[in-house]
Each structure stands twice: as C-alpha cells, then as structure tokens.
Design brief:
This protein is an alpha/beta fold and 628 residues long. The protein is 28% helix and 24% strand. An 8-stranded mixed beta sheet has the order 2-17-10-13-9-3-4-5, sandwiched between helices. It has a 5-stranded mixed beta sheet with strand order 21-23-26-31-34. A 4-stranded parallel beta sheet has the order 18-22-25-28, with helices on one face. The longest helix is centred in the last third of the chain and has 19 residues. The structure holds ligand UGB. Ligand UGB binds next to strand 4 and strand 13.
C-alpha cells in the first residue's frame, strides 16, 4: 500500500521491486505507523540511486552485481584468459648519480602537477577510532599525515612553484568527510590556500546479502539506525570512484586547461610518498608515460598488488595491458599460467619478479582527461564475498561491488604508454594499515608489517639513510620489540618539507657530510621556512631547530649532548592514549635543545655553545634566538 508515498517515492519503490528488492518492505508497518521512517528510507534510496557513480543508478548496480556474483560463485576469474609476464620499467637507486640526474629533470615537472589524496577509507584493518589522515606520522613532532601532506605541497609551491601552491583534491567519504574538514578548519587548513583545495565526497553503495544481490539491512543495534526495517546497509565502493569524481567535478579538465601536465594520486598514510616523486615524474616525462605506477621490490605474499604485463590472444587479435593485479589474484593467475609455485621469490633477488604496487600513480593529464571524457571515469567493478559454505551461496557478511583507481590502464586506448618506476621500499613506502597484532603476525610471516610503529621507524630511517648516502656518519639504533613488532627507532631525524623536498635539497643542506655525526639515540628536527646549512655537527642528544623565513642558520662545530628523547615500552597495565597503544611504546622527551631562529635575521651560526650567533659577532658572544 503506497498511499502515503509521493510520486517520486513510488517511482523509487518501482525501481527496487524491478531490481528484485521486495524483501526490503517485508516488515514494514501499515500506513499511518512509522511513516516518517518510510520517507527517510526513500530519501536514502533516492540518494543511492542518484549518486551511484556509474550510469544507470541502482538498477544497473544490482544487475551488474548479480552477474559478478554468479561468476564469483562459479569460481570464475576476471583474469582467466590473460597470461602474465614481468613488465619493463625503470628501476632507480637513490643516492646514485643516475638518480640525481632523474631528480634534476623531474624538479621542473613538480610545479606542473596536481595532487589527489584518496582518503575515503576508514582503515578497518587498523582499528583506529579517528580518521587515518589525523594520525601522527611520527611522535617526535606529532605532525599528522594531513598536515604533512599539506606542508609538503605548500613548500612545493614556495620552493619549486614560484609561490604557487599546486592544487590538491582530497577524496573523502561519509566516514571521513566531516572529520577531515574539522581537522582542516581547526588548523587553518595548515596554510593551504583555500582556492587550491577541493574535498570530493564519494558515496557508499548498498551492501548485498546473497548471490541474488538482495540489498542488506544493517544489523540490529547499528549506531545511528533507529529501526533497521527502514534502513539499508551501505559500504564504500573503493578508491576507483576518484576518477568519476575528478570527471564530474570538472577538476581534471580545469587542471589541464590551467596548463598542468601531471596528476599524482597518493594514499592516506604513507609519509614516504613524496621522496620518489621528482625522479618518477622525470621517468613519466622522458618515457612519455600516460600512467606511471610507483613500485617497490615486492616480498612474495605481501598484501600489495603486483604490476603485471597481461597478454590475451583471441583469434588473430592480441591485447596487452600493463596493470596492477591484486595480491589475492596474483597467486592463482601465476599458477594458472603454468608457474606451479605461484607467488614466490626469484631466488636471485629474494623478491617477487613482479614489482609491488604502492598505489601511488602518476598520470599524464592530457590522455587522462581525454579518457575521462569518453568513459566518465567509469571503472571495472569486482566483487569479493567471503563465503560461509562450500557451495558459495552464503556470505559471512554482506558484500558490495568495488572498484580500484589503479585499474585505470584497463580503460586507456592501446596507444597509451603505461610503465612503472621502482624504488626501494625504505625510500618510498611504509603505510599504516594494520593494527599492532596483525602487524606482529605479518612480521612473523616475513612480510612488511604496515603498522604504526613501522610507519614511524621507517620515516626516521628514510631521512637517516639519505644522510648516510650523502656521506654523513649516522648510527642506527638496535631493533627492539614492542608487542611483537620489531623496530629500530633511532636516530629520529625529521626534516620538514619546507626545509628540503628532495634528496637534491638535502645535499645542498649537508654541505660537509663527512663532518656530520649523529648518534643512534639522537633526535634531529629541522623545520621552519628559512634555510639551514649543516656544516659540522656531532649530535648525541635532541636538537629541535626551527628557522624563520629570511634567515639562514649554519650549524658549525656544534657538539650537542643532552638526555634527549627515549622510547619507553608500554607496560601491560599502563593507561595510555590510542596512538601510543597502536605502537606499543611512548616517546619520553627527557631533555632537548630547542632553537627558534627569528625571521629575517640574515645568517646566524649555531656553534659549539649551542647558541645562535650573528655572523658578524662570531668571535664575540651573543644570542639571537630563544632556546630552552
Ligand atoms: N580508499 C578510499 O578513498 N575509498 C575507498 O572506498 C577505499 C579506500 P586501502 P587496499 O598500497 O598497500 C591498495 O584499503 O585497497 C582509500 C591496492 O589496491 O588502504 O587494500 C584509503 O583511504 C593494493 O594494490 O588499500 O589496497 C587509502 O588511502 C596495494 O597497493 C587508499 O584508498 C595497497 O593499496 C587505499 O585503501 C597498498
């Protein structure tokens, strides 16, 4: 009895009935009872129908889901006819002359780049109560991922872009939109110009409870749901939505019209994301790549996809694409192709012969925009239900269709060049995706843990290792275990993007690397918007240096010893905050030298006494800074 429904609501009801969703009305009350919940239900259905990012609304979604679920139940694999081989790509070695040459070429490309952060995921595997981009990248400065990314892009605009900050689009979802905006607003957008920042919201899709693609209701007791009889369970549709959003908002086109050449996609928690960027952009430019995937040597069974060259022959026609194969599909694909061992290591390297996808993608804007015009950003969808029975008819929990941003090469024309740039993991990839227990399990099984502790340790290491490559003497702390996750947390080197964006920039700062010695337990933080030259320094404590704009601080003959910062494991009973519990330790700041060099102060020297001295007063005593 639809008498209480508006015409629009009735039309939506027809669509649901046509899509085989009559069960949704099974337990509805008679007209007159709970009518407001019925109207709210249809308002939600209307939104789902309208915002489904691909053409055809809910009907198309359900029809496609039925087809994909039938294939999945029959054990079909979308890669069935494809033969995998290892693709060709560029393998770079940071610190090498060749790497520096690539970086030098890529620096010019940095200012012709737009950025897209996909941050719609809630990070269920991590189990964090907040949004992932609000997590600290490390505990020494407690800079959050969002702040770090904004700082990087602002610095990029200032240092390489003649003052113009590159555009940033952040894809958020219902799960992350409000909290992402709140963090940005509470921090004055971390200095990011408002007109260069766009939040794009991806909508969820209905969850499906069986092979007939019947839409699921939320389980009883779900937060925010008054009465599950009038509600629909929804789930994220995957990061592949980013392409339809960049099309529908017109952003990609606008960037191209503004003369930009590249768009870089990156993930919510990878503090190493930008180290490889300049060099990888150079590879894109020199090789004329429409798509360039950043990659790392992949540990077999590591939960990252593999960049693969896939070939399919049908009659006289041969199709080739270079694309990511997800980790759960790689092993069966390799076995089906006759590699009996599946996803295993090349004995010569100890790594999978297939480069690991870190889902950081560089697209050339012109072919990207042209393809969006044709496809509207529609991506291939897939379904991945977890079955509760051998006959593959019962799901452990509702599933949904998903799509992935790295599948874009599948919709590109055959003329488009697709490649990858591989760099060591220490230099480019350490995401925070797993809770501490799962991180410990991954470590035990020999794959990278992807936890909060490793994300932090790897960030310090990436700076320390680059200083080593420059020729500095930088010790490394022994590995310690925290709740089963082993990490080496020292020295803790953090150099803000506003000070150095590239390896090349670090080289310009550490002018006499042979005169730099950093102890394993030391802390070195350099930040601010001024300039720094590290001439000669022996660091056995904590130094936190901040330099104001228009000032250059030269660290010369500085020997610093203080109690510094120490890492203290959490004892089982200790009350602690969530970010410490995720790590299994706390950072205790015992003692530090904190130097704040004022702006526009010319050239100052931080010397043996640990005080700032004007160049002209070097022989006399005098301090121009605040310190504690
Ligand atoms: N994300 C969204 O913005 N919206 C969504 O609906 C879902 C996610 P996950 P995933 O680099 O370690 C990918 O969940 O998808 C954002 C690659 O597929 O962390 O399991 C989310 O906020 C895989 O090939 O990763 O695996 C986050 O920023 C491999 O490279 C990002 O998308 C793996 O990443 C990734 O989401 C990896």
């Amino acid at each position: 009895n639809w008498s209480i429904l508006s015409q629009d609501e009735q039309a939506l009801a027809e669509i649901l009935l046509k899509a085989g969703q009559a069960h949704l009305f099974d337990e509805w009350d008679a007209p007159g009872t709970n009518d407001e919940l019925k109207h709210a239900f249809f308002a939600h259905v209307e939104r789902l129908h309208r915002t489904y990012p691909f053409p055809g609304g809910l009907l198309a979604y359900i029809e496609r889901a039925r087809r994909l679920l039938a294939g999945s139940a029959a054990g079909a694999n979308s890669l069935d006819d494809w033969v995998p081989t290892v693709p060709e790509g560029e393998v770079l070695k940071p610190g090498s002359e060749e790497f520096s040459n690539w970086e030098a070429v890529g620096e010019a490309e940095l200012s012709a780049t737009a950025f897209v952060l996909v941050a719609g995921g809630l990070g269920e595997r991590l189990g964090y109560s907040g949004i992932k981009v609000a997590l600290p990248t490390e505990m020494t400065t407690e800079t959050s991922y969002l702040e770090f990314y904004c700082n990087y892009l602002v610095a990029l605009g200032m240092m390489k872009g003649k003052g113009k900050v590159p555009p940033l689009a952040i894809m958020v979802s219902d799960d992350t939109h409000d909290r992402t905006l709140a963090v940005l607003q509470a921090n004055d957008f971390f200095g990011f110009p408002r007109d260069q920042l766009t939040l794009m919201k991806q909508e969820k899709v209905p969850a499906l409870m069986d092979n007939n693609a019947r839409i699921a209701r939320p389980s009883r007791g779900t937060k925010g749901v008054d009465d599950v009889r009038y509600a629909i369970d929804c789930k994220p549709h995957g990061h592949g939505d980013v392409h339809s959003l960049l099309h529908s908002t017109g952003l990609a086109r606008r960037w191209e019209e503004d003369g930009l050449k590249w768009v870089v996609f990156f993930q919510d928690t990878n503090a190493l994301a930008f180290f490889p960027l300049a060099a990888a952009l150079a590879v894109s430019a020199r090789r004329d790549l429409a798509v360039n995937s950043l990659a790392i040597p992949r540990v077999p069974k590591q939960a990252i996809g593999a960049i693969t060259r896939l070939t399919r022959t049908s009659g006289t026609e041969t199709q080739v694409m270079i694309v990511n194969v997800e980790y759960n599909q790689l092993d069966p694909l390799l076995r089906a192709a006759g590699s009996g061992e599946g996803d295993t290591a090349d004995p010569a390297t100890g790594h999978s012969p297939y480069p690991g996808n870190i889902n950081q993608l560089i697209f050339a804007l012109t072919p990207y925009v042209a393809t969006l015009e044709k496809t509207h950003g529609v991506m291939a969808e897939f379904v991945n239900p977890k079955y509760a029975d051998g006959a593959r008819t019962v799901f452990k929990k509702p599933t949904r269709l998903e799509c992935m941003m790295q599948d874009f090469p599948k919709v590109l024309g055959p003329e488009a060049k697709v490649g990858f740039t591989s760099l060591p993991a220490w230099f480019s990839f350490s995401p925070v995706k797993n809770n501490i227990a799962d991180a410990a399990k991954a470590l035990e099984s020999g794959t990278p843990p992807g936890g909060a502790a490793t994300g932090e340790a790897d960030q310090y290491f990436a700076y320390a290792e680059q200083l080593r490559l420059l020729g500095c003497r930088v010790m490394q702390a022994p590995t310690e275990g925290y709740a089963g996750v082993s990490v080496s947390l020292g020295p803790r080197v953090v150099i803000a993007p506003s000070i150095a964006l590239t390896y090349h920039d670090l080289r310009a700062i550490f002018v006499h690397p042979e005169k730099v010695s950093i102890d394993a337990a030391a802390t070195l933080v350099i930040r601010g918007t001024g300039k720094v030259e590290v001439d000669s320094i022996t660091l056995e404590g904590a130094l936190i240096l901040s330099v104001g704009q228009g000032t250059t601080v030269v660290l010369k003959d500085l020997t610093l010893k203080n109690k510094g910062h120490i890492v203290r494991p959490l004892s089982g009973k200790e009350e602690s905050d969530e970010v410490s519990r995720m790590r299994g330790y706390r950072l205790v700041k015992m003692e530090e030298l904190r130097i704040q060099a004022p702006p526009n102060a010319g050239r100052l020297f931080l010397t043996a006494q640990g005080t700032l001295t004007h160049e002209k007063d070097l022989s006399a005593k005098g301090s121009a800074a605040t310190q504690s």
